[in-house]
Write a structure and sequence with these properties.
38% helix; alpha/beta; ten-stranded parallel sheet; disordered C terminus; single chain
């Protein structure tokens, strides 16, 4: 019988880069054993948290992120759309809740939101929370004052990915710096909002870049509550549309290392799930992934049908992680599981 216990040991944020490299490059079976053992200490190994991400403002982004079909600098055939009306957003949120999602995330293709736009998003946040869902937004860079406004609105999570290693970052994005990313994360953290932060693998980076990327996440002042590990979706018209495919086992190594370094985080299998086999999904879950995006699309790229995810859950004995809106538990103070006893 699985019993719930609370762990009070210090979560490390002082990992050295050499320690991360050693963890990542250890024999694959040893890596998975370590990651799965840690996963069982902190989470029910047969629960997966379900989120849904909706693009509330699509396309025409001024940034030049080479992976992104929403950049106005690339011809990907994507139709730009204005900010959605709150009624349309709420209808999508209700559908997401009906499909089993406990967190509803809203993304807008902005470099940074105007205060007017932010006011409209704040009304969406309040309405989503009134449905009994956790709220998350990703809106680009924020000022300190904007982060405080989102906190006052009751926002649960702010997503702002660092994307890749500091060393490889300039090869992917030139319109904002790696430090800009960290500044926004700092504003969000100081405002008291949970952080969702991860990145993308398969963009042509080296294993050294992947370990440096993980090292950056694991040495933030507080680990992100959610760590999305995206696998590049190669969209025609973007500069990365013909990059070489990443070895799937390297994806699993990234997930497993993230679990070891950030044991309390929800590690999310994010973009790229359409090109992942059931076996790769299962291996990632074993390696410590315990969150996915559920729905027909992840912003503008497709996801598997919900029915397929639930069919795989049935085969693996996995259940959606429950969410109690009345609980005062947060991602930084979760309940932990011990398989013994």
């Amino acid at each position: 019988m699985t019993k719930i216990v609370r762990q009070e040991e210090l979560i490390r944020t002082d990992w050295t880069l050499d320690e991360v490299k050693e963890t990542y490059h250890q024999p694959f079976n040893d890596l998975l054993f370590q990651a799965h053992s840690i996963h069982r200490q902190y989470f029910d190994p047969n629960h997966v948290q379900l989120s849904t991400l909706l693009s509330i403002k699509t396309g025409a982004c001024p940034e030049d992120c080479k992976y992104c079909p929403q950049s106005g600098r690339f011809n990907t055939g994507l139709q730009k759309e204005k900010l959605m009306r709150i009624e349309a957003v709420l209808e999508k949120a209700r559908q997401a809740k009906g499909n089993g999602a406990t967190r509803f995330c809203m993304g807008a293709a902005w470099r940074n939101p105007s205060d007017r736009d932010l006011g409209e998003v704040i009304e969406m946040i309040k309405a989503v929370k009134a449905l009994g869902l956790e709220s998350c937004v990703t809106l680009g860079m924020l000022t300190d004052e904007q982060a405080i406004s989102l906190a006052e609105a009751g926002l649960d999570y702010y997503n702002h990915n660092i994307d890749t290693s500091p060393e490889f970052y300039g090869d992917i994005i030139t319109t904002r710096t790696f430090s800009d990313r960290l500044d926004t994360l700092d504003s969000v953290h100081r405002a008291g909002i949970n952080i969702c932060c991860g990145g993308i693998v398969g963009m042509g980076e080296t294993s050294m870049d992947r370990t440096s990327f993980l090292h950056q996440l694991a040495t933030l002042p507080v680990h992100p509550g959610s760590v999305p590990i995206n696998l590049l979706v190669k969209v025609k018209g973007t500069p990365l549309d013909s990059v070489e495919d990443l070895d799937p086992l390297e994806y699993v190594r990234t997930v497993a290392t993230a679990r070891i370094l950030m044991p309390r985080a929800h590690v999310r299998i994010s973009a790229g799930r359409m090109q992942m086999s059931d076996e790769l999904h299962a291996l990632a879950y074993f390696a410590g992934a315990n969150s996915i995006f559920l729905g027909k699309a992840l912003l503008t790229t497709p996801l598997p049908e919900e029915e397929l995810d639930y069919q795989l859950f049935d085969r693996l004995g996995i259940q959606p992680e429950p969410y109690d809106i009345s609980s005062d538990e947060t991602a930084d103070t979760p309940m932990f599981y011990n398989a013994a006893g």
